[in-house]
Amino acid sequence: MWKLWDGFGIADAKMAGFWEDNPVVSTNQKNVYATTYIFHYKVLVAIGSWVDEPVEVNLNIDWERLGLSPDGVTIEAPEIKDYQNKRLFKVNGSIPIAAKRDLLLVISKK
Predict the structure, then answer these.
(1) For 15-27, what is each residue's pLDDT tens digit?
(2) At 105, phi and psi to the nearest 5?
(3) Which site among 10, 31, 45, 67 is 20 to 30 Å from 108 CA-CA?
(4) How far is CA 90 from the centre of its chain?
(5) Which neighbouring-strand residues pair with 103?
(6) Comparing C-alpha atoms, which of 6, 4, 19, 33 is closest to residue 106?
(7) Measured in Å, how far apart are the chain's first and last C-alpha atoms?
(8) DSSP H/E element including 1
(9) Which domains does the chain have, with CATH numbers?
(10) DSSP string, 25-77
(11) Coil, helix or strand for 96?
């Protein structure tokens, strides 16, 4: 995980939390939260589920505030040894989250 954070540039990123009045990224599920780290034109999204069963979430993304276009990005869960497998997701597709687990996503320009 440290390698991902360092490679992303998290130390210099702007954090936008799920607790804000108008978050940059949120989910469509109650008790599943997204905290966003923005660094230039790439975004790290930490999704955390407080739900007792697996859920499918859709992301609500304010593309304008991110300075990105949904047509020009990829959404990837990068491989993190002993944490998560690499997966690609569609911009408007659902994302499975295991019960009371989290997932790190990177949204970047194609």
Answers:
(1) 999 999 999 999 9
(2) -120, 145
(3) 31
(4) 13
(5) 47
(6) 4
(7) 23
(8) none
(9) 2-109 (2.60.40.1180)
(10) EEESSTTEEEEEEEETTEEEEEEEE--SS-EEE-EEE-HHHHT--GGGEEEEE
(11) strand
